[in-house]
Design goal:
The complex is a heterodimer of chains A (312) and B (143).
Chain A lengths: L2 H7 L3 H12 L3 H11 L6 E6 L6 H14 L4 E7 L8 E3 L14 E7 L11 H11 L3 E5 L10 H4 L2 E6 L6 H6 L8 E4 L7 H13 L12 E3 L8 H15 L2 H35 L2 H8 L5 H12 L1
Parallel strand pairs in A: 1-5, 1-6, 2-4, 2-5, 6-7, 7-8
Helix pairs in contact in A: 1-2, 1-3, 2-3, 2-5, 4-9, 10-12
Chain B lengths: L1 H9 L6 E7 L6 H12 L3 E9 L1 H10 L4 E6 L4 H14 L7 E5 L6 H7 L3 E4 L4 H10 L5
Parallel strand pairs in B: 1-2, 1-3, 3-4, 4-5
Helix pairs in contact in B: 3-4
Classes of the chains: A alpha/beta (312), B alpha/beta (143).
């Protein structure tokens, strides 16, 4: 016990990769190693990148890595893509956009599948952050799956959430409906050469203007970019550092740390509880009880109540 | 409850992480994309690297991604040399225990040389999907 953690603290990338896999499969060995590493962390600055499918998240991350490296900062990335709910398989395709950094020892990219988690991340995302932080990476970027209207887990795990939108993603009503708008610290209208981009940016600025002041007094910048052309990315970096500087104030940092710990705890508990529920439903339910529900002699309500009783 | 029971059983199986990519100037990515899709449907996590990868980038990815195996697709003639370089680079950075498999247009005359380098599986034109899936699944480590 602790041997993986020791290797990781010494900078062993193989061990880091291994421990993330162990964390993904939620083995108890991973828990002890992560516990050790967590105590060595707390230095990395964390950035979340989120947005709908095809908005250009991976391409933007690729451009951000280049600029962060130019400033001498080391960067680790956890890039999440969805698992098939049917086969549990996945095609993790974010790394392919970042291969120009493949030979750079100051960059580590790990692709992760959601494995059934629904909030836009993998349950082990917090663990990956713990590992990268303990390894001494200056910046940890978390890229979510392509989000829709409710995948907002990213906000708990990172201190600067960058939300990508495009003018291609529907009208103003869609933008208002999307819960993900509430979580952005920085908004980027990407693919700005697409018609309607300026209008989208203007609409977002107006919507933000009408919202009440945030508790942390942060004003959300709305920027335009074309990540694939490396246009507008210096402005994005400036905004990111503005956010990180803002967070340096003690009151903000303690709130962020508290939120991060809570998000991590919630992710861990969520997996345990859902696994327990699945086992309970599969294993503890008597065939007669199922049959009764199927034949409508009783309802799923009383059956659910009985199952929950066993959890208490 | 049949489906839930099956899901419960599948959960005890380790999920295999398979790196898939092409080296050098090879650009015929249709085959590798098809394989990526098939493996996904077979429950494999495919880390898709696409075309134009360097030997160093591919080997580094195998480590950082904790891949259970590396799959290369070739449609050009230089595959023996490229495979030799990759295997050497993986050895250099301590990743030579990660198995390598090849797919695409691989001439039977070259199979022995490739196996001698340490290649674990070769799936040329006409290979059965079921055989590829079975091979990839067999590369999973207990977690």
């Amino acid at each position: 016990m602790g041997s993986l953690a020791d290797a990781i603290l010494a900078g062993d990338r193989r061990a880091a990769g291994r421990l993330i896999s162990l964390a993904e499969s939620r083995t108890s060995d991973a828990r002890d190693e992560l516990e050790i590493l967590y105590r060595h962390g707390g230095h990395a600055r964390t950035i979340g990148v989120t947005g709908p499918p095809g908005a250009g998240k991976s391409t933007l991350v690729d451009g951000l890595i280049a600029r962060l490296r130019a400033r001498g900062l080391t960067v680790a990335v956890a890039a999440v893509d969805p698992s098939s709910p049917y086969s549990r398989g996945a095609v993790l395709g974010d790394r392919v956009r970042m291969m120009r950094h493949a030979d750079d020892a100051g960059v580590l990219v790990r692709s992760m599948a959601t494995r059934g988690a629904l909030g836009g991340l993998s349950a082990a995302t917090g663990d990956a952050i713990t590992i990268f932080d303990a390894m001494g990476f200056d910046i940890v970027i978390v890229e979510t799956v392509g989000v829709g209207q409710s995948e907002v887990d990213i906000v708990g795990h990172t201190e600067a959430v960058l939300l990508l939108q495009t003018a291609l993603g529907g009208d103003d009503v869609q933008a208002i409906k999307a819960g993900v708008l509430e979580i952005a610290d920085i908004m980027v209208v990407n693919k700005k050469s697409a018609p309607g981009s300026d209008r989208m940016a203007r609409f977002l600025r107006e919507s933000l203007h009408d919202r009440p002041l945030r508790p942390d007094a942060w004003t959300i910048p709305v920027l335009l970019a074309e990540a694939s052309e490396e246009t507008g990315l210096d402005e994005v970096i400036d905004a990111l550092f503005g956010r990180l500087d803002h967070n340096r104030q003690d009151t903000h940092m303690s709130a962020i740390r508290r939120r991060q710990a809570a998000a991590h705890l919630t992710a861990l508990a969520d997996v345990e509880i859902r696994t327990l529920m699945r086992r309970l439903i599969a294993g503890q339910t008597r065939p007669e009880a199922w049959q009764a529900v199927l034949e409508r002699r009783s309802g799923p309500y009383s059956l659910a109540a009985r199952l929950f009783e066993q959890l208490r | 409850m049949q489906t839930d029971f099956q899901a419960e059983q599948a959960e005890d199986q380790p999920i295999v992480r398979c790196l898939l990519g092409m080296l050098g100037t090879d650009v015929h990515s249709k085959g590798i994309r098809t394989i990526a899709q098939l493996l996904r449907e077979a429950g494999v996590e495919v880390i898709y690297l696409g075309e134009h990868n360097s030997v160093q980038g591919m080997a580094r990815a195998a480590i950082d991604e904790d891949a259970d195996l590396v799959g290369l697709s070739f449609s050009s003639a230089a595959y023996v040399e490229y495979t030799r370089q990759l295997v050497a680079e993986m050895k250099r950075i301590g990743a030579d225990d990660i198995p390598v498999m090849l797919g695409g247009i691989i001439h039977p005359d070259d199979h022995q040389a490739l196996y001698d380098m340490g290649v674990r599986g070769i799936f040329g034109a006409g290979s059965k999907t079921a055989d590829i899936i079975a091979f990839v699944r067999s590369m999973g480590r207990p977690r």
